[in-house]
Amino acid sequence: xxxxxxxxxxxxxxxxxxxxxxxxxxxxxxxxxxxxxxxxxxxxxxxxxxxxxxxxxxxxxxxxxxxxxxxxxxxxxxxxxxxxxxxxxxxxxxxxxxxxxxxxxxxxxxxx
Length: 112
Ligand code: 5GP
Ligand code: ZN
Hints:
Blueprint: H1 4-10, E1 17-20, E2 24-28, E3 36-42, H2 54-70, E4 80-83, E5 99-103
Antiparallel strand pairs: 1-2, 2-3, 3-5, 4-5
């Protein structure tokens, strides 16, 4: 399968990793849109929240919990924004579910 994020998870494409456990990898976005911009990706491949099985949803739930626990150590003690794009209108460009983690500065009140 030709998936950039699967290749990053397998180490076939280099990335700046900030956290890894059995569920996910968190690494720096190559084109940051905030002072801090990480991507959290599940190790299992699925495209987005619409494609997600119940089991995969459980993994994403654990990912969110862990992101909350890691926030301070990731430099996000003053707050952060989580975004997961799905489909054309949201400009999803990588078809492997990912959660953008944005922070490190005061973000825009507008999200769209
Ligand atoms: P999307 O637009 O699908 O929600 O977000 C995809 C994100 O992946 C973009 O923010 C883009 O900068 C990031 N990205 C794409 N290719 C790579 C890559 O090879 N390495 C890293 N670290 N980020 C990537
Ligand atoms: Zn993938």
